[in-house]
Amino acid sequence: xxxxxxxxxxxxxxxxxxxxxxxxxxxxxxxxxxxxxxxxxxxxxxxxxxxxxxxxxxxxxxxxxxxxxxxxxxxxxxxxxxxxxxxxxxxxxxxxxxxxxxxxxxxxxxxxxxxxxxxxxxxxxxxxxxxxxxxxxxxxxxxxxxxxxxxxxxxxxxxxxxxxxxxxxxxxxxxxxxxxxxxxxxxxxxxxxxxxxxxxxxxxxxxxxxxxxxxxxxxxxxxxxxxxxxxxxxxxxxxxxxxxxxxxxxxxxxxxxxxxxxxxxxxxxxxxxxxxxxxxxxxxxxxxxxxxxxxxxxxxxxxxxxxxxxxxxxxxxxxxxxxxxxxxxxxxxxxxxxxxxxxxxxxxxxxxxxxxxxxxxxxxxxxxxxxxxxxxxxxxxxxxxxxxx
Length: 389
Description:
By secondary structure, this protein is an alpha/beta fold. The chain is 34% helix and 16% strand. It has 11 helices and 14 strands. Strand 4, helix 4 and strand 5 form a beta-alpha-beta unit.
């Protein structure tokens, strides 16, 4: 019996563990201390957590004391997206949240803001935040309600399109507001520097980097201004996020961050070359393939495409049968395969659907070739235009 070779091409959903991370996790399994305990075992656990904090801070171009560990990016988003902040001991009110129309659901839902206090900012047909629209919204912001907060991802998780967060931050700060940047899909795929981005907060996730699931971080630009805690209790993480630290996942997160930073330049070039070869081969096999966002700046590892005549769900199943794991957009909704809100925001008919191929640190040329072989078969089986498969 022939065993079908599996090819993993869904790294934006989650990245398999990096070998260096696996080694750290195995060693950390024997670490018994609580990081809040004062005995030797507790101090050892605390030292390991703080070392991981420095590694994550280095990934974000931030200071270690400004990294707050969470259970993941969703929790980090819900922590920072709140009307209630403190500047030192003084309360600080955010009156309205503005989110780009292509945000991950963890941000698009608005966190702790009421639905009435959340406004979507449109994107252009190229999938880029509409800066003119943002400027108009900020000009009309009701200052009596509090300051404006704007949330925008640095890299879109479906298209891979890089967003103009520096320009957006300039508009936000001119209006006296706060800029929150979801850097989940950017981390490990492009350089990060919270100050250079002019962001007030960055959101990060461990498992997108090749670390374990169950760890994320909210990174702040400074220590003085912080959101009201989401989880109350023993006051861990300087009171910003109570609960015993998930030492195992945090140590893996730190190891993944360090490994990603160490190999960033070479890995970016390697993935760019593989993605170029992938897309060239797709065009040879199906001249009518639509690659969304290809005319703009994209992160090095992502291809979001539509094959006319092929529904996204049908395509995902067909690739899976051929041994290729890819996704129909974002893998953030309990396995649902629905219409893409990103395509809708870009002005496309979401019923056409699209599939996402994303590459990572273990992707090889052989993976590209196997994917293209499957792509050619599936493209050749499509029904004529106008008769969706």
